[in-house]
Specification:
Number of strands: 6
Shape: globular
Number of helices: 3
Distance between the termini: 21 Å
Length: about 140
């Protein structure tokens, strides 16, 4: 097995362990569609209890979806990596019954710091939100 394949296998194992303990993502019904070092895809079906007083998807749930894709993408090996910060721009509202998909991609990773972009789209492929996460790798391992 090559070094790259070993890193990919280690990251997948670590992410599976992380997601098995992630009660928040489980409660939201998040589904991991893709889990590769530096790249992740996660989907979520919007439920009635995820809408706000205007009957549109609460921004916190859109953020949580994007943040989970970011977490999977930035945990690229067996070292625990956490968010150092994140920003989101909401571009389109959605409603109950729609399916949102977040795709996270590594932009750069230098030393212990990384930058990841996440695009959230609806089932038609329209962009719902753009998220940028900044990661920090800790000294802890899975």
């Amino acid at each position: 097995m090559t070094e790259a394949m070993t890193r990919t296998t280690d990251a997948m194992r670590a992410n599976r362990a992380m997601m098995e303990r992630d009660q928040a993502s489980a409660a939201l019904g998040l589904v991991v569609e893709r889990d590769d070092p530096g790249h992740a895809v996660v989907s979520m079906r919007v439920r009635d209890d995820m809408t706000n007083g205007f009957r549109i998807t609460h921004g916190g749930f859109v953020f949580a979806l994007a943040d989970t894709a970011f977490a999977i993408a930035c945990n690229e090996d067996d070292r625990v990596t956490v968010a150092a910060g994140a920003d989101i721009s909401f571009l389109k509202s959605t409603v109950s019954g729609q399916t949102l998909t977040a795709t996270a991609v590594r932009r750069t990773r230098t030393g212990r710091s990384g930058i990841y972009d996440v695009t959230v789209v609806d089932e038609l492929g329209d962009t719902v939100a753009e998220f940028r996460g900044r990661s920090r790798t800790t000294n802890q391992t899975f």
